[in-house]
Write a structure and sequence with these properties.
The protein is mainly α and about 100 residues long. It contains two helices and no strands.
Length: about 100
């Protein structure tokens, strides 16, 4: 009788595990539809949502480009002040008359 009891218990445990797995799969597959979890699915239904998504996409796309451009502008402005004297000295040296014996 204990073998029969163990076999019946194993079948019930397997059935319960299968039911739990099926229930979990059903919840996972239907939960996003019930909760409207997909933010992009309903974007076209509301014009305000569509505009908000497009605006945020535009801002998030242009922000890194603006930061890079601002950094390069700042670097160029800072370098022009520091390197300006370097170019002035080389230009003055090139424009000065040669200082050596005059040729005949």
């Amino acid at each position: 009788m204990s073998a029969h009891f163990a076999s019946a218990l194993a079948r019930r445990v397997a059935l319960a595990a299968g039911l739990r797995l099926a229930l979990a799969a059903a919840v996972v597959l239907t939960a996003p539809a019930a909760a409207h979890a997909c933010s992009a699915c309903s974007v076209l239904t509301n014009i305000r949502n569509l505009k908000a998504f497009l605006d945020s996409t535009l801002v998030l796309s242009l922000l890194p480009l603006a930061l890079i451009a601002g950094g390069l502008w700042w670097l160029a402005r800072r370098a022009s002040g520091r390197l300006g004297a370097e170019f002035r000295e080389s230009d003055e040296a090139a424009a000065a008359p040669p200082s050596g014996p005059a040729e005949r």
